[in-house]
Design goal:
150 residues, mainly beta, five-stranded mixed sheet
């Protein structure tokens, strides 16, 4: 059973800021490098009706310590967050210059029971979509968001 609570929502930051501490930038660069080394597997493509979405992540199944980083168009927007039964909410404004925006889940670890699994929900204001994601230390899970033509 999924219990939806709304802890403080996370506004997706601008991917890889140009300013910040050397340590922060080094961590982000290292994460991007690790992400690029893994194969990215498309889990689903969703047509959405809005230019922004709320994406929520939950640990899928038993809460076993899975931690993930989340990427938007191959750039990190969340780094090393633990998945639980409570929603990890991210609000994203999509890049209108792109036909497709891609959200990817990078496994930081495998938890107690590999692989790293999550339930991702996407809400565009009109509809709610559920996608089950599975990632490992060699594969990222990805969802493509395509803007519905009016």
């Amino acid at each position: 059973m999924i219990v939806t609570t709304t802890p403080q929502p996370i506004q997706a930051p601008s991917p890889l800021p140009d300013t910040g501490t050397d340590t922060t930038l080094a961590v982000a660069r290292q994460l991007v490098e690790s992400f690029e080394k893994r194969q990215t597997v498309l889990s689903r493509e969703i047509e959405i009706s809005s230019d922004s979405v709320r994406i929520s992540f939950y640990d899928n199944g038993e809460i076993d310590g899975d931690s993930v980083s989340v990427f938007l168009n191959r750039k990190p927007i969340l780094i090393n967050r633990e998945l639980t039964a409570e929603a990890l909410n991210v609000y994203i404004k999509l890049d209108s210059t792109r036909e497709v925006n891609e959200v990817s889940m990078f496994a930081e670890n495998l938890g107690v029971y590999p692989p790293n699994t999550a339930l991702m929900t996407v809400n565009d204001g009109e509809r709610r979509y559920e996608v089950y994601l599975s990632s490992s230390l060699t594969q990222n899970a990805s969802v493509r968001l395509r803007r519905r033509r009016k």
